[in-house]
Automatic annotation (TrEMBL):
Keywords: Chromosome partition, DNA-binding
InterPro entries named in the record: Chromosome_partition/occlusion, HTH_ParB/Spo0J, ParB/RepB/Spo0J, ParB/Sulfiredoxin_sf, ParB_dimer_C, ParB_N
Ranges where the ParB-like N-terminal domain occurs: 28-118
Family: Belongs to the ParB family.
Name assigned to this protein: Chromosome partitioning protein ParB
Organismal lineage: Bacteria, Candidatus Walliibacteriota
A Pfam family it matches: HTH_ParB
Gene Ontology molecular function: any one: DNA binding
Gene Ontology cellular component terms for the protein in this record: chromosome
Origin species: Candidatus Wallbacteria bacterium HGW-Wallbacteria-1
GO annotation, biological process: chromosome segregation; positive regulation of sporulation resulting in formation of a cellular spore
Amino acid sequence: MARQKSALGRGLSSLIEKRDEPGRVEILELDPASIFSGTEQPREYFDEKEIEALCESIDKHGILMPLIVSGNSDGNYTLVTGERRLRAARKLGLKRVPAIQKEFKGGVALEVALIENIQRQNLNPVEKARGFQRLIEDFTYTQEEVGRVLGKSRVYITNSLRLLALPDEIIRGLIEGKISEGHARALLMITDRAAQISLFYRVVSEEMTVRDVENHARGMTEVKKDKKSSGKKVYHELEKRLAERLSTNVSVTKGKRKGRIVIEFTSEEDLHNILGYFN
């Protein structure tokens, strides 16, 4: 899909400017019931307390920043940006909301709206990561291109996407604010999902700091490495002892569920000698 690069990542000004009439933007007064949320909205979790606070602000000062919408063929509108303002307006029972209509070609509206919404500071880490993922999957962006458009490094985008690999319980806790993004990144240091979930519940119940989680995760990783290293030493020693007793090459390997001992022989006589040893 062709990208309108010049309009992406430049903020609301790129959505509302009219090049033929500099400084002049037509503000519409629309019925909230005629505006429908678009699929490009990355926000999944809306804090009711935040909506209530926004309602109080709108009730007192009005909607200071117009919504951005695009027109539909049925006379209604699709929301590009302003989901929280629209929800608050509906909750207050407002009959009209200020809006700016902006038309885009093809699927560019979805692309622009998604980027504009990702740039909002109040998205949680999971919503941002899923927004990055949509740009990559739906609009064929590379991680580097996502970072360039949003003013982030490729490493930042990569680390954000890694959050989506966490178990559902942890992702839900991150969305609900039970843990911070720092906690989540520390939990990613653990490769075992059951251990991740177990430590997550400890983080919530014991109010562990990010440093606590990092130290705990690092300790679990070191223990796992030590056990693996210790196991290899045991198998190597066993190979050596059997090879000396049987006068042939011996291999000892351990899989997830079972192990294997391979004893080499070069003749029937060797085989009889080996069998005689075990008898």
